[in-house]
Amino acid sequence: MGLEPAVGFLHDCSDYQTKQSLVYDLQEPFRWLIDVSVVEAFESGTLKLQDFYFTGDDYRYHFEVGAKQRFISLLRERSNAGVTYKGRVLKWDTIIEQKTIELGRYLTRKLATLDFVEPSPKLVRDDNSELRTRVLALTQSEARSRGIGKSTLHYLRKNAQSKRSFKTYRKVQCKLGPSCSNS
């Protein structure tokens, strides 16, 4: 992009090449991608506390190779999710590249303003407490009248009782929702 990676704005400038302060600066607006991925990894069981170990010599936790591979896969899925930006659907890694180009254009005065807010992440969870309560209160006959089969109800209840995050298909969400309660 034509920018010097060692010269940052938020992080200290470095006089040695291994520290790339600008790279650290550019990760800050997108840190949430990692944070959300970590939460999802633990909630889904992709990562468990047993995957981590403490060596004691460097005061850091490390995690097993298999766990790293599972996490990288989940992170790749999150960063490849499409998001609408300037009328186009782009992947988050493309957005980060675009924002870096915009930063370069802003610094060379080819761009009047710089916006790291858009596109904003849309973090929507299917498994909120209201849905869990609705699923657990649903009787077999109510489920049948809404078009929800026995096995679907079984797995919905199993997931709602769990502390883990879970997803429901849109059709099932509609059948559970108040707008579909009389169908």
Structure report:
The protein has 183 residues and is mainly α. 47% of the residues lie in helices and 8% in strands. A two-stranded antiparallel ribbon has the order 1-2. Strands 3-4 form a two-stranded antiparallel ribbon. β3 (82-85) and β4 (88-91) form a beta hairpin. It starts with 20 loop residues before the first helix and ends in a 7-residue tail after the last helix. The model is unreliable at 179-183 (pLDDT under 50).
Going by helix content, strand content and strand pairing, the class is mainly alpha
Largest sheet: 2 strands, antiparallel
Query: Beta-strand percentage?
Result: 5-15%
CA gyration radius, whole angstroms: 22 Å
- Figure out the total of helices: 8
Number of domain modules: 2
Under CATH at level 1, the class of the largest domain stands as Mainly Alpha
Q: How helical, in percent, are the residues? A: 40-55%
List the strand order in the largest sheet.
1-2
CATH topology term of the largest domain: Four Helix Bundle (Hemerythrin (Met), subunit A)
Name of the CATH superfamily of the largest domain: CRISPR-associated endonuclease Cas1, C-terminal domain
Number of DSSP E strands: 4
- Assembly state (oligomeric): single chain
How far apart the termini lie comes to: 56 Å
Question: Which geometry do the CA atoms define?
Answer: flat
SSE ordering: HHEEHEEHHHHH
**Any guess at the CATH architecture of the largest domain?**
Up-down Bundle
Query: What is the overall pLDDT average?
Result: 83
Low-confidence stretches: 179-183
